[in-house]
Structures are given as structure tokens and as C-alpha cells.
Amino acid sequence: MGMKTAVPLPRLARRLAPVPPARARCGRVSAMNLAPASTADLAAMMAEHHARGARLPSVEVGALNHVLAHTPEDMTVKVESGLTLAKLQAQLATRGQWLPVDPPRADRVLIRDVIEHDLSGPRRCGFGTIREHLIGLTALLADGRVIHSGGNVVKNVAGYDVQKLFIGSRGTLGIVVEAVFKLRPLPEAEVFVEQSVPNAGAAAGVIEAVQESPVTPVAFEMHNLPGAGGPRAAITLVLGFSGAREEVDWQLANAGAMGFATASSLGHEARFWTGSSAARKWSVLPSKLCETLAALGEARFVARAANGILYARGGPSPPPPGPPSALVRRMKDTFDPKHILPDPGF
């Protein structure tokens, strides 16, 4: 079915609960986790574990939660990795800016999670992933050493682009403690429209029509969740447009010609991620997405129609990811020779 990778989500879900503030402030160590009060505190903890060759427990960075520098005129921001995405977006919004990533549960997701787990949401269709917006990074290696990569300005070409190695690394190479992002202005307008189709085959036809049209959506979603008012058709496709009002109106006119005439939202995302059962991630070739959907049976799902990312509850399990490549193993041995950080089996 053209499947490339599939990753279960329970480990990240367990990490989404915020750190109790009292514990985060005291910088204590327990049998289960570390809760450093500062970057220096964490560096000392890591150095001590490295010296003993002891596996590092789970690290909670909730106390590292400050915006270190926001330069609106340059559209950049420097933050600590324990800040939640929602708090960052709220502060940026006061200056008419935002970081264009939108993973679910932004009030619980930390900047560290966004980077180390390469989290994204529906608007990745138009704005890409965190890779497109990360311009600088500070991380702690396994032995507690501090490394810096990139810089504080958008036009930064000095040195190796090491910060990209930490995107999606899941803490296997080091722990991200600070990050610098380039920002975008908040859009003047943002509108969502939808249409419903009876099955995956019909959805494939709509996807092809959208991809061959002149529209440039910032979000292109599919789901089969019941609406707030009750059941709906088998599959709903959602298009989102943002930008200047005139541009959005033009996009809507073109979308309407393809059957997207009903006002919509991204409310299906919140409904899906508030479910109690475990969700699993499928990553397939975009051309195989609807074929994969047909094989899921009665499973509830949300999918990124433009890039083959699918999250499902129920139905068959995706195949497990393959073993790490020789290149990944070499990187692990270079950054963490004693393997005190998580191993790259994912």
C-alpha cells in the first residue's frame, strides 16, 4: 500500500501533561524523572549521569518557560523549550505575529515537543513544518555540554545547519533548551469550507481536482468524524485559505466551483484529539492515502490530504517502523557514545 513509516503516539501523549510548578521550580530528581530549574541545573544532571554511564530519566523542562527575546521588526523570537506553544502564540499575537505551526493541544505541547517530535497540524499544507521556521537552537549533549547552532536572524548562513538534526530526533541526540524562530504576520482573513463525499474513491477524485486547480490552501483535511449536530457523510474534505481578504475571496470562488460551498472550521481536530482511545499515525505516499483509508474500515480518522499523513483510532494497526539506518546509528554514537539518552528505535 506504499506505506513508509508508522509511529504510535502514546509516548508523546504521556508527556503532554504539564509539569507541576512546585516540582519544576525546585529542580529535584526522582526515580522517574528530572525536573531542572534552569539550563545549568539540567546540564549538571546530565553530566553526572554521563560520568556514571547511567541512563538519563525522563526530563521535564516545564520550568524553562520564558520568551527570551522577541524582535517584531525582524519577525524573530527566541524562547526556552519548556514554554507551551499556546502561550508563545498568545504573546506573539499582541504584535500581530504568529509561529505558523498548529499541532493539537497547543496549550499542553511544549516548544521542545514541537521540535523533537516534529509536530505539526492542518496548516502544514500551506506553511510547512517546524523545519521551515527554526533558524537557531541551543541544546545540551549527553555529557552536559552546550551547543549552539544557527543564529538570531533570518539571513544566517554561518556554520553547519546542525539544528535540523534535532528536528524529529525525539531526544536521542540531546535535549533542546532554547530555539529561535522566524515568524509570520497574522493573516487578515482565514476561512474554511467543506464538502462531503460517500467514500474514499470519491475523495480521491476531489483531491485530484484540488491539486490541479489554481487554489493554494493553507489546510487540506479529510475526516470521517460526526459533526457537532450528529452523523454526516462518510468522508468530509475541508479546505482552508488565509491571507489578504481579496485573495481569500478569490480562492473561495475557485473552491466553490469544485463543490466546496459549506462553511466549515477545524473543529474536527479538537473532536478527534479529545478521544480517549489511542491514536496511531500512518505516513503513506499521498497517492496511496485514499487506498489506505479504504482499508481502515470503520476506524475514525483525520488526514492531511496533501501529504499522506493520517491519524486513526480503530481499524488495523500500521506496520512497525524499520530499524534505524547505519547513518542514524553513527549519529547516535557520535552525539551520545554512552547511550544514556533514548535509543533511536522510535
Fold blueprint:
Blueprint: E1 3-8, H1 10-15, H2 21-26, E2 33-34, H3 39-52, E3 58-59, E4 67-71, E5 76-80, H4 85-93, E6 97-98, H5 111-116, H6 124-127, E7 134-140, E8 146-150, E9 175-182, E10 184-185, E11 189-197, H7 200-211, E12 219-223, E13 235-243, H8 245-256, E14 262-263, H9 267-273, E15 280-284, H10 289-295, E16 300-304, E17 309-313, H11 326-335
Parallel strand pairs: 2-3
Antiparallel strand pairs: 1-15, 4-5, 5-9, 6-10, 7-8, 7-9, 11-13, 11-14, 12-13, 12-16, 15-17, 16-17
Helix pairs in contact: 7-10
Describe the protein in words:
This protein is an alpha+beta fold and 346 residues long. The chain has 2 domains: 3-186, Uridine Diphospho-n-acetylenolpyruvylglucosamine Reductase, domain 3 (2-Layer Sandwich), CATH 3.30.465.10; 189-313, no CATH class. It has 11 helices and 17 strands. The chain has helices spanning 10-15, 21-26, 39-52, 85-93, 111-116, 124-127, 200-211, 245-256, 267-273, 289-295, 326-335; strands at residues 3-8, 33-34, 58-59, 67-71, 76-80, 97-98, 134-140, 146-150, 175-182, 184-185, 189-197, 219-223, 235-243, 262-263, 280-284, 300-304, 309-313. Helix 3 (39-52) links the parallel strand 2 (33-34) and strand 3. Helix 7 runs antiparallel to helix 10. The longest helix has 14 residues, at 39-52. It is globular and about 65 Å long.
Strand order of the largest sheet: 1-15-17-16-12-13-11-14
- Assembly type: single chain
- Distance from N terminus to C terminus (CA atoms, Å) equals 22 Å
The global form is globular
The main pleated sheet reads as:
8 strands, antiparallel
- H-E string: EHHEHEEEHEHHEEEEEHEEHEHEHEEH
